[in-house]
Write a structure and sequence with these properties.
- It contains 19 helices and no strands.
- By secondary structure, it is mostly helical.
- The protein starts with 9 loop residues before the first helix and ends with a helix.
């Protein structure tokens, strides 16, 4: 029981109160269930008509029955994500949202505590609150990756299975996992990742058919074009790519630069000693540097790593505060860069 009670000191209290203040503002800004609505709608379609999963207009129209003023929220997850989403979607919309949000936050807090992070600050962190309010799956993915990194040196097969489960839900956040496993020469983890990944693919085909996978591959470029032409989404995105689109400059060079930086840091982080929370942030945060589509709630990927940093350092407190505040000053990319630098810096300067 004592381990569940936070060690309250002035720094802990100051950061917790700051997070609570930001959270109170969040509740008035973000619409509950806005991101869960297309997932819940797709989860219901999957059982009856999976051929229409990637009909953007249909999904938008159907979710309007549960969330008013639907605004550009198509379903763009891979069909494998329906293995999680479709069973939850059997519940009515609001109970399913409560289940997803509460379960995700509890899962993330438990995994974060396991790697030395403060579970109470994690669940109070503004990016985590955003993800829970809108009904994102990112918190589940972060918890899986944190646990995978914590298991990697003890049970490679388990770690690989966890990486695969995370990728089946949200593959864009796991694009750097192969780099991590190759860097650390975790061959058993690579093998189990492939086995579990193929099993998840096969199960989704068995339940929903192969056609949704073909439709998904066609939907990705269509969604990307819609994203580029939709200023509200571009404005709230945190990726360097989104900044390039906003400024009207060539985006490919920025994506390549982000990929080089992210790959280098992940390679170092898994070829040298590093904590599980840090390693998870290198993988997930690095993905945000190179993926075109990454919204402000994705900053939650840094919660376990940032909130495990020693609070005795004023610098660490300022980093955490700026990370949370960046959501409100339209500076998500700044929050991403500051958080990634705080996590990756010690990895680079540490001797191998």
């Amino acid at each position: 029981m004592r381990r569940l009670i936070p060690q309250i000191d002035a720094r802990w209290l100051a950061l917790a109160l700051f997070f609570l203040l930001l959270d109170a503002l969040l509740i008035t800004i973000f619409k509950p269930g806005s991101d869960w609505a297309p997932l819940w709608t797709a989860g219901r379609l999957a059982w009856d008509n999976p051929a229409q999963l990637y009909d953007f207009e249909l999904v938008a129209r159907l979710q309007g029955a549960v969330v008013d003023k639907v605004d550009f929220h198509p379903f763009i997850y891979p069909p494998s994500a329906l293995l999680l989403i479709a069973p939850i979607a059997l519940l009515p919309f609001w109970p399913s949202l409560v289940l997803l949000a509460s379960g995700s936050m509890a899962w993330l807090a438990a995994t974060a505590r396991r790697v030395g992070s403060d579970p109470w600050l994690v669940v109070l962190a503004p990016p985590v609150i955003i993800a829970a309010i809108v009904g994102q799956t990112s918190l589940l993915v972060v918890g899986l990756v944190v646990l995978a990194c914590a298991s990697l040196d003890k049970d490679e097969r388990k770690a690989g299975a966890l990486f695969a489960l995370a990728a089946l839900i949200k593959p864009t956040l796991l694009v750097l996992a192969p780099v991590a496993l190759l860097s650390g020469r975790h061959w058993r983890a690579i093998g189990s990742t492939l086995v579990v990944g193929l099993a998840g693919f096969g199960l989704s085909v068995l339940l929903f058919g192969l056609q949704p996978w073909l439709d998904w591959l066609e939907a990705i470029p269509a969604f990307q074009r819609m994203f580029d032409d939709y200023p509200p989404l571009v404005r709230n995105a945190v990726s360097p790519y989104a900044l390039a689109v906003r400024l009207g400059v060539e985006s490919m060079a920025i994506v390549v630069l982000g990929a080089i930086v992210a790959v280098a840091f992940v390679w170092l982080g898994f070829s040298r000693p590093a904590g599980a929370a840090v390693r998870s942030a290198l993988i997930l945060g690095g993905a945000l540097l190179l993926t075109p589509y990454a919204m402000n709630y994705e900053l939650a990927v840094f919660a376990p790593a940032l909130l495990s940093l020693p609070r005795e350092s004023l610098r660490n407190l300022l980093v955490c505060a700026l990370w949370g505040l960046s959501l409100f000053i339209n500076a998500g990319l700044l929050g991403l860069l500051v958080a990634y630098a705080a996590v990756a810096g010690p990895v680079v300067t540490r001797r191998p």
